[in-house]
Amino acid sequence: MKQLIIILFSVSLIACASPKVLDVSTAPEADFSKYKTFAFYELTAFGDTITEVFNDRVGYLKKVIASEMEQRQFKQVSNNADLLINIGIAIKLEVQTRETDWRTDGMMKYMGQRNYKWEAKEIEVGRYRRGAITLHIVDAAKNHMLWTATLRGSLPDDSTKVAAFADKGVKALFGKFPVQ
């Protein structure tokens, strides 16, 4: 029972954990003072984890990214942008398991003819979604990547917490952006 409580507590910590920024890279020749405008690449989505609210959430993500760019004095335009932003999203449903233990999950079972047996099994204790968002900021004229960063974390199950999670994650990403 103690192991189950520890596992459930660990899952709750993981679920509440902040997203982590990884793999930040800036091109050596990147000079963001030359750029004034930005736009987004068209986003195409496929896979079995796409939900009905995917487009709404991507729209919200674009809105938060645009807000961060505008705070850095870049203006969003619909065409002929200086910078193009590509958003890569990967989401995977993960299953958390634990192995049964005869001390906590019951004693050996009688199989007949004085034959007792214990069989360890993997038991599902939870499901969660892990995701990664990668931003690529590209010089539109040269088609050359200037900056990239990846954000990874466990997505909240509660749909009311997704917006706050996105805000927190994008702010963490742009905390590593060369233009403050």
Structure notes:
With 180 residues, the protein is α/β, with parallel strands linked by helices. It is 28% helix and 36% strand. It has a single domain (2-96, 126-174), classed as Double Stranded RNA Binding Domain (2-Layer Sandwich), CATH 3.30.160.670. It has helices at residues 2-16, 54-71, 102-105, 162-174; strands spanning 20-26, 37-40, 75-76, 83-99, 109-110, 116-117, 122-139, 144-155.
In short:
The chain is an alpha/beta fold. Helices cover 28% and strands 36% of the residues.
Question: What does the secondary structure layout of this molecule look like, with pairings?
Answer:
Layout lengths: L1 H15 L3 E7 L10 E4 L13 H18 L3 E2 L6 E17 L2 H4 L3 E2 L5 E2 L4 E18 L4 E12 L6 H13 L6
Parallel strand pairs: 2-3, 2-4
Antiparallel strand pairs: 1-8, 4-7, 5-6, 7-8
What is the CATH topology descriptor? Double Stranded RNA Binding Domain
Whole-number radius of gyration? Answer: 23 Å
- Which second-level CATH architecture applies? 2-Layer Sandwich
Q: Report the portion of residues in β strands.
A: 35-45%
| Number of separate helices | 4
